[in-house]
User: What shape does this take?
Amino acid sequence: MEFHAVRLLVNDFQKSLSFYRDVLGFSEWHNDEQEYAYFEKQQLALFSHLKIRDVIGEEQPTNEAFYSKFLLQFEVDNVDETYRGLVNKGVRFINLPHDQAGWGSRVVHLRDPEGNVIELYQILKKEKG
Assistant: This one.
C-alpha cells in the first residue's frame, strides 16, 4: 500500500479550487462535472462533499458546528515573504508569522474557504557557535 494524497471533502468546490490554484498557486488537474481536483506536487485533492456522501452512505449533518480536525502543513522558503504575498491576494490569517523555537520553525496559519487550517512553515537555521 502506498500513500497517494490527502483528499479534502469540500462544500464549495469552485471556491476551494480557486483558492488552492489561484491564491496559493498550486497546479492541478480538475474535472468540474465530477467536482474533483488533484494537485500532484502537493499530493492534495479536492472533492465535493455532496458527490462522496452517496458513495460512503453519509447523511447531511444536522449540526454544522466547526472545529479543526486536522491541519495541512506546507514548507515554504520564507514564511514572511509568503505571508505578505498572500495578504496582497486578500488572504486573512489566523495569526502573524512567528517563531516556534521548540519546533525549530517559523510558522503562520490561515484557513482555506472550507475552514481547514493550513500551516506555512520554514525551518529555522541554527546559528553556528
